[in-house]
Amino acid sequence: MALNSVSIEKTGGWYGFLNGLALIAYALILQITHLADVPILRFGFLVISVIFICMSISSLKQARGGMVRYLQGIAVGSVTSIVATVMFAFFTVINIQFFGSNIIEILQSENTMGEHLTLTSVFLVITMIGIPGGVLTSFIVMQYFKRPDHKFSQ
Predict the structure, then answer these.
(1) Of 53, 60, 55, 57, which Cα lies nearest the Cα of 4?
(2) Which of 135, 10, 31, 40 is nearest to 85 (CA)?
């Protein structure tokens, strides 16, 4: 019973919320310093997300006494990435629509997402890249967090 006292959804939701806030803060820093058009700095979004996915899995493992099942770790990392990605996508759309962010012009000029970007397509692209990326990251990170006595089934 003690192993199931911590919820995957609550842990993933909390760290996803914090991850979303960190992504938004990083985007605002890039926008304020006029560095949003530097492609290499966008790699920071990935680094921030990986850090928070690791923190969520680590927190779940610690709260459950060092025992986290493989799929539970992937699930908490996935919930973290879903919450953070949706938060960041909504922020980006609101930022473009109401605060005059020029990120849509930057993306159009780089031709990474095509010339005819709309707010809906920006939202969908962010979520379609962020969510599967977070799930894949959770899968990779769980190689580190799995139990030391993990063995293949016979």
Answers:
(1) 60
(2) 135
**Residue in the structure block whose two tokens are 């806030």:** 21
> Is the Cβ–Cβ distance between 49 and 81 less than 8 Å?
yes
Contact yes or no for 95/107 (Cβ under 8 A): no
70: Cα within 13 Å, side-chain hemisphere = 8
Local confidence band at 1 (pLDDT 50, 70, 90 cut-offs): very low
Q: How far does Cα 55 stand from its chain's mean position?
A: 12
Cα gap 11→21, rounded to integer Å: 16
Least confident of 25-39, 40-54, 140-154: 140-154
In tens, the pLDDT along 69-101 reads 889 999 999 999 999 999 999 999 998 888 777
d(CA 105, CA 95): 13
Composition of the chain by helix, strand, coil, percent to 5: 75, 0, 25
Q: What are phi and psi of 153, to 5 degrees?
A: -70, 150
